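I would like you to sit down with the record closing this message with an eye to the fold:
=====
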Amino acid sequence: MTVSLFFQHLANGISLGALYALIAIGYTMVYGILRLINFAHGDIVMVAAYVAFYGAAMYALPWWLAFPLAILLTAGLGMIIERAAYRPLRGVPRIQLFTSAVAVSFLLENLGIVVFSGRPKAFPRPAFLDKPLHIGDVIIISYTPVAVAVALILFGGLLYIVHRTKVGMAMRALSKDIETTGLMGVDTDRVIMIAFAIGSALAAAGGILLAIKFPQINPLMGVVPGLKAFIAAVLGGIGNITGAMIGGFLLGIAEIMIVAFFPQLAGYRDAFAYTILIALLLFRPTGLMGEVEPEKA
């Protein structure tokens, strides 16, 4: 493999990693506070793609209006899911929360099939994202730096919220002890709802980037990316925002590189990601940046 071809594949891996990173951060935010794996997260990715599709293709909104609107509406959906499916079960054994998350996932998928139909739809791709960029002998499309920039900007914004605002301080306190934080006067329900909204907004951004990268959407499009983003979150250390970001990029790069170096294994690309998850659980269950914490009741 030539040097230029290596960097070509590296660019593709980085753009894919940006998608995984955005979705993984949403996973890790919810888990960091509630110790809940929100398995409906991947389906929120799908909903965002469809909302953006209908806004841009059906209602002829410009992309710069349709995409942010889809992110806002999806954030609202995250708040509704938290209020209806998770908050009433917050005091029950965690297995029931897990069951509720799986039920919400199936509900969104089947509602998507009923409402949007199971037939794939072509997603409108802004023309400026198809322009080729020449960096020496490497040719990449303009989508790649845009996807990475969006991921890094949103990641920076999230770090600012978590570490520089009162809501972020409350989130960090909740991640340590929900009951004690509530006794100190913090509106825990409000803070958790905001965390779900932010996580869903990040998933929405990842879903729109996913639909632009692979411009064909369907009601099950979020299942595999959602699982891989979960693996990325575990890889980085689930509950750690920076770790989820790093894990997303590492998984995206690893996926592309394994196919580039071993094309005969291209059909096992998804299996490679799941193998990483199994190996992590066996040898380093806390991930790259995770910490061992006592189990919450």
